[in-house]
Amino acid sequence: MGLLDGRVALVTGAARGIGQAIAARLAAAGADVAVCDLEAGWLEETAGRIRQTGRRAEVFACDVSRADQVQAGVDRVVEALGRLDVLVNNAGITRDTFLVRMSETDWDAVLNINLKGVFLFTKAVARTMIRQRSGSIVNIASVIGLMGNAGQANYAASKGGVIALTKTAARELASRNVRVNAVAPGFIRTAMTDKLPEEARQRMLGAIPLGRFGEPDDVARTVLFLAGDESAYITGQVISVCGGMVMA
Ligand code: NAP
To answer: Is residue 224 lining ligand 1, measured as CB closer than 6 Å?
Structure first.
Protein backbone atom coordinates (compact mmCIF):
# COMPACT_ATOMS: atom_id res chain seq x y z
CA MET A 1 0.00 0.00 0.00
CA GLY A 2 1.34 3.46 -0.95
CA LEU A 3 1.45 6.47 1.35
CA LEU A 4 -0.79 8.42 -1.06
CA ASP A 5 -3.19 5.73 -2.31
CA GLY A 6 -6.47 7.35 -3.44
CA ARG A 7 -5.07 10.87 -3.23
CA VAL A 8 -4.77 13.50 -5.95
CA ALA A 9 -1.74 15.79 -6.18
CA LEU A 10 -0.93 18.85 -8.30
CA VAL A 11 2.67 19.89 -9.02
CA THR A 12 3.57 23.20 -10.71
CA GLY A 13 6.61 23.69 -12.97
CA ALA A 14 6.80 19.92 -13.42
CA ALA A 15 8.30 19.67 -16.93
CA ARG A 16 11.77 18.96 -15.59
CA GLY A 17 14.11 19.17 -12.61
CA ILE A 18 12.77 19.05 -9.08
CA GLY A 19 9.11 19.33 -10.15
CA GLN A 20 9.39 16.29 -12.42
CA ALA A 21 11.05 14.25 -9.65
CA ILE A 22 8.30 15.26 -7.20
CA ALA A 23 5.52 14.29 -9.63
CA ALA A 24 7.12 10.88 -10.24
CA ARG A 25 7.71 10.27 -6.52
CA LEU A 26 4.11 11.16 -5.54
CA ALA A 27 2.74 8.88 -8.29
CA ALA A 28 4.99 6.04 -7.12
CA ALA A 29 3.41 6.49 -3.67
CA GLY A 30 -0.07 5.97 -5.17
CA ALA A 31 -1.34 9.45 -6.08
CA ASP A 32 -2.95 10.49 -9.34
CA VAL A 33 -0.93 13.55 -10.33
CA ALA A 34 -1.84 16.71 -12.24
CA VAL A 35 1.13 18.60 -13.63
CA CYS A 36 1.46 22.02 -15.19
CA ASP A 37 4.16 24.09 -16.82
CA LEU A 38 4.26 26.99 -19.25
CA GLU A 39 3.55 24.66 -22.19
CA ALA A 40 1.65 21.38 -22.02
CA GLY A 41 3.91 19.81 -24.66
CA TRP A 42 6.91 20.00 -22.30
CA LEU A 43 5.14 17.72 -19.82
CA GLU A 44 5.12 14.55 -21.93
CA GLU A 45 8.14 13.00 -20.21
CA THR A 46 6.71 13.76 -16.76
CA ALA A 47 3.29 12.37 -17.69
CA GLY A 48 5.02 9.23 -19.00
CA ARG A 49 6.83 8.74 -15.68
CA ILE A 50 3.52 9.14 -13.79
CA ARG A 51 1.66 6.68 -16.04
CA GLN A 52 4.48 4.12 -15.72
CA THR A 53 3.50 3.78 -12.05
CA GLY A 54 -0.08 2.91 -13.08
CA ARG A 55 -1.46 6.25 -11.83
CA ARG A 56 -3.43 8.86 -13.81
CA ALA A 57 -1.69 11.97 -15.15
CA GLU A 58 -3.55 15.20 -15.94
CA VAL A 59 -1.51 17.71 -17.93
CA PHE A 60 -2.24 21.40 -18.41
CA ALA A 61 -0.45 24.57 -19.50
CA CYS A 62 -0.36 27.34 -16.92
CA ASP A 63 1.67 30.43 -16.16
CA VAL A 64 1.59 30.41 -12.34
CA SER A 65 1.69 34.21 -12.24
CA ARG A 66 -1.64 34.51 -14.10
CA ALA A 67 -4.69 34.33 -11.82
CA ASP A 68 -7.10 33.37 -14.63
CA GLN A 69 -4.91 30.46 -15.80
CA VAL A 70 -4.32 29.23 -12.23
CA GLN A 71 -8.04 29.12 -11.36
CA ALA A 72 -8.93 27.45 -14.67
CA GLY A 73 -6.20 24.83 -14.10
CA VAL A 74 -7.34 24.00 -10.58
CA ASP A 75 -10.98 23.75 -11.69
CA ARG A 76 -9.95 21.39 -14.48
CA VAL A 77 -7.97 19.13 -12.12
CA VAL A 78 -10.82 18.87 -9.61
CA GLU A 79 -13.27 18.08 -12.40
CA ALA A 80 -11.00 15.49 -14.06
CA LEU A 81 -9.61 13.76 -10.96
CA GLY A 82 -12.47 14.34 -8.51
CA ARG A 83 -10.62 15.95 -5.61
CA LEU A 84 -7.35 17.64 -4.64
CA ASP A 85 -5.33 16.51 -1.63
CA VAL A 86 -1.82 17.78 -2.27
CA LEU A 87 -0.52 20.98 -3.89
CA VAL A 88 3.20 21.37 -4.53
CA ASN A 89 4.15 24.94 -5.47
CA ASN A 90 7.41 24.24 -7.28
CA ALA A 91 7.59 26.54 -10.35
CA GLY A 92 10.37 29.07 -9.97
CA ILE A 93 12.94 31.09 -11.88
CA THR A 94 16.15 33.04 -11.26
CA ARG A 95 17.26 36.34 -12.83
CA ASP A 96 20.55 36.87 -11.00
CA THR A 97 22.59 40.06 -10.88
CA PHE A 98 23.81 42.48 -8.24
CA LEU A 99 21.24 44.75 -6.64
CA VAL A 100 22.59 47.97 -8.17
CA ARG A 101 22.33 46.46 -11.67
CA MET A 102 19.01 44.67 -11.20
CA SER A 103 16.25 45.88 -13.49
CA GLU A 104 12.70 46.38 -12.35
CA THR A 105 11.71 43.82 -15.01
CA ASP A 106 13.92 41.13 -13.46
CA TRP A 107 12.65 41.97 -9.97
CA ASP A 108 9.01 41.75 -11.09
CA ALA A 109 9.47 38.55 -13.09
CA VAL A 110 10.98 36.66 -10.15
CA LEU A 111 8.52 37.98 -7.56
CA ASN A 112 5.54 37.32 -9.85
CA ILE A 113 6.43 33.70 -10.56
CA ASN A 114 8.13 32.63 -7.32
CA LEU A 115 5.91 34.42 -4.79
CA LYS A 116 2.68 35.61 -6.41
CA GLY A 117 2.37 32.21 -8.10
CA VAL A 118 2.38 30.50 -4.69
CA PHE A 119 -0.28 32.92 -3.43
CA LEU A 120 -2.51 32.37 -6.47
CA PHE A 121 -2.32 28.56 -6.38
CA THR A 122 -2.77 28.42 -2.60
CA LYS A 123 -5.85 30.61 -2.83
CA ALA A 124 -7.23 28.60 -5.76
CA VAL A 125 -6.97 25.21 -3.98
CA ALA A 126 -7.92 26.43 -0.50
CA ARG A 127 -11.67 26.31 -1.09
CA THR A 128 -11.56 22.67 -2.25
CA MET A 129 -9.30 21.58 0.61
CA ILE A 130 -11.39 23.45 3.21
CA ARG A 131 -14.51 21.71 1.89
CA GLN A 132 -12.75 18.34 2.09
CA ARG A 133 -11.51 19.17 5.59
CA SER A 134 -8.06 17.90 4.57
CA GLY A 135 -5.13 18.86 2.41
CA SER A 136 -1.39 19.35 2.34
CA ILE A 137 0.33 22.25 0.60
CA VAL A 138 4.09 22.05 0.13
CA ASN A 139 5.94 25.14 -1.06
CA ILE A 140 9.40 24.84 -2.58
CA ALA A 141 11.36 27.72 -1.06
CA SER A 142 15.18 27.82 -0.90
CA VAL A 143 17.94 28.14 1.68
CA ILE A 144 18.60 31.48 -0.06
CA GLY A 145 15.29 32.66 1.43
CA LEU A 146 16.74 31.93 4.88
CA MET A 147 20.29 33.24 4.48
CA GLY A 148 20.27 35.69 1.52
CA ASN A 149 22.85 35.58 -1.26
CA ALA A 150 24.83 38.24 -3.10
CA GLY A 151 23.49 38.57 -6.64
CA GLN A 152 20.06 37.17 -5.81
CA ALA A 153 18.10 40.01 -4.16
CA ASN A 154 14.96 39.24 -6.16
CA TYR A 155 15.21 35.47 -5.66
CA ALA A 156 16.03 35.74 -1.92
CA ALA A 157 13.15 38.15 -1.36
CA SER A 158 10.75 35.86 -3.24
CA LYS A 159 11.78 32.76 -1.28
CA GLY A 160 11.78 34.61 2.05
CA GLY A 161 8.27 35.72 1.10
CA VAL A 162 7.29 32.12 0.35
CA ILE A 163 8.41 31.12 3.84
CA ALA A 164 6.36 33.91 5.47
CA LEU A 165 3.36 33.05 3.29
CA THR A 166 3.71 29.38 4.26
CA LYS A 167 3.53 30.21 7.97
CA THR A 168 0.57 32.56 7.51
CA ALA A 169 -1.42 30.12 5.37
CA ALA A 170 -0.62 27.36 7.88
CA ARG A 171 -2.15 29.45 10.68
CA GLU A 172 -5.24 30.37 8.61
CA LEU A 173 -6.00 26.84 7.34
CA ALA A 174 -5.02 24.66 10.31
CA SER A 175 -8.51 24.62 11.84
CA ARG A 176 -9.77 22.98 8.62
CA ASN A 177 -7.07 20.29 8.76
CA VAL A 178 -5.19 21.81 5.82
CA ARG A 179 -1.44 21.79 6.48
CA VAL A 180 1.06 24.12 4.79
CA ASN A 181 4.82 23.53 4.93
CA ALA A 182 7.90 24.56 2.98
CA VAL A 183 10.97 22.72 1.77
CA ALA A 184 14.15 24.78 1.42
CA PRO A 185 16.54 23.06 -0.99
CA GLY A 186 20.22 23.94 -1.02
CA PHE A 187 22.20 23.24 -4.20
CA ILE A 188 20.29 20.66 -6.26
CA ARG A 189 21.60 19.46 -9.65
CA THR A 190 19.09 20.74 -12.25
CA ALA A 191 19.02 23.05 -15.29
CA MET A 192 18.71 25.97 -12.84
CA THR A 193 22.09 25.22 -11.25
CA ASP A 194 23.80 23.80 -14.37
CA LYS A 195 24.10 27.37 -15.67
CA LEU A 196 26.28 28.51 -12.71
CA PRO A 197 30.01 29.00 -13.41
CA GLU A 198 32.25 26.09 -12.35
CA GLU A 199 34.08 28.29 -9.83
CA ALA A 200 30.82 29.14 -8.03
CA ARG A 201 29.82 25.45 -8.01
CA GLN A 202 33.12 24.44 -6.39
CA ARG A 203 32.80 27.23 -3.79
CA MET A 204 29.32 25.99 -2.90
CA LEU A 205 30.46 22.37 -2.69
CA GLY A 206 33.01 23.44 -0.08
CA ALA A 207 30.16 24.81 2.07
CA ILE A 208 28.16 21.56 2.07
CA PRO A 209 28.99 19.36 5.10
CA LEU A 210 27.67 16.18 3.41
CA GLY A 211 30.16 16.85 0.58
CA ARG A 212 27.89 16.47 -2.44
CA PHE A 213 25.29 18.42 -4.39
CA GLY A 214 21.68 17.32 -3.90
CA GLU A 215 19.63 15.39 -6.47
CA PRO A 216 16.02 16.29 -7.38
CA ASP A 217 14.85 13.10 -5.66
CA ASP A 218 16.40 14.25 -2.36
CA VAL A 219 13.83 17.06 -2.43
CA ALA A 220 11.04 14.81 -3.77
CA ARG A 221 11.35 12.35 -0.86
CA THR A 222 10.97 15.20 1.66
CA VAL A 223 7.94 16.50 -0.25
CA LEU A 224 6.39 13.01 -0.10
CA PHE A 225 6.84 12.99 3.69
CA LEU A 226 5.10 16.38 4.00
CA ALA A 227 2.37 15.46 1.50
CA GLY A 228 1.13 12.37 3.32
CA ASP A 229 -0.08 11.37 6.77
CA GLU A 230 3.41 10.57 8.09
CA SER A 231 3.61 14.33 8.78
CA ALA A 232 0.02 14.69 10.08
CA TYR A 233 1.08 16.80 13.10
CA ILE A 234 3.45 19.11 11.18
CA THR A 235 2.37 22.49 9.78
CA GLY A 236 3.98 25.90 9.24
CA GLN A 237 7.47 24.38 9.15
CA VAL A 238 10.45 24.79 6.83
CA ILE A 239 12.62 21.73 6.21
CA SER A 240 16.01 22.43 4.64
CA VAL A 241 17.24 19.80 2.19
CA CYS A 242 20.76 21.08 1.75
CA GLY A 243 23.34 18.57 2.94
CA GLY A 244 23.77 20.60 6.13
CA MET A 245 24.60 23.89 4.32
CA VAL A 246 22.19 25.68 6.66
CA MET A 247 21.63 24.49 10.21
CA ALA A 248 18.84 26.33 12.01
P1 NAP B 1 14.07 24.24 -13.33
O2 NAP B 1 14.82 23.03 -13.75
O3 NAP B 1 14.35 25.55 -13.99
O4 NAP B 1 12.51 23.91 -13.39
C5 NAP B 1 11.53 24.87 -13.06
C6 NAP B 1 10.30 24.62 -13.91
O7 NAP B 1 9.33 25.66 -13.65
C8 NAP B 1 10.65 24.71 -15.40
O9 NAP B 1 10.04 23.65 -16.10
C10 NAP B 1 10.11 26.07 -15.76
O11 NAP B 1 9.79 26.22 -17.13
C12 NAP B 1 8.87 26.14 -14.90
N13 NAP B 1 8.36 27.49 -14.86
C14 NAP B 1 9.06 28.67 -14.91
N15 NAP B 1 8.24 29.70 -14.91
C16 NAP B 1 6.97 29.21 -14.85
C17 NAP B 1 5.69 29.81 -14.83
N18 NAP B 1 5.52 31.13 -14.88
N19 NAP B 1 4.61 29.01 -14.76
C20 NAP B 1 4.76 27.66 -14.75
N21 NAP B 1 5.94 27.04 -14.77
C22 NAP B 1 7.05 27.81 -14.83
O23 NAP B 1 14.29 24.53 -11.77
P24 NAP B 1 14.51 23.52 -10.54
O25 NAP B 1 15.95 23.61 -10.17
O26 NAP B 1 13.88 22.21 -10.77
O27 NAP B 1 13.71 24.34 -9.43
C28 NAP B 1 12.41 24.00 -8.97
C29 NAP B 1 12.10 24.82 -7.73
O30 NAP B 1 13.09 24.55 -6.73
C31 NAP B 1 12.12 26.33 -7.96
O32 NAP B 1 11.11 26.95 -7.20
C33 NAP B 1 13.48 26.72 -7.43
O34 NAP B 1 13.53 28.07 -7.01
C35 NAP B 1 13.63 25.76 -6.27
N36 NAP B 1 15.01 25.55 -5.86
C37 NAP B 1 15.92 24.97 -6.68
C38 NAP B 1 17.23 24.79 -6.22
C39 NAP B 1 18.28 24.14 -7.06
O40 NAP B 1 19.42 24.06 -6.59
N41 NAP B 1 17.99 23.66 -8.24
C42 NAP B 1 17.59 25.22 -4.95
C43 NAP B 1 16.64 25.81 -4.15
C44 NAP B 1 15.33 25.97 -4.59
P45 NAP B 1 10.94 26.87 -18.10
O46 NAP B 1 11.54 25.69 -18.78
O47 NAP B 1 10.22 27.79 -19.00
O48 NAP B 1 11.90 27.62 -17.25
So the answer is: no
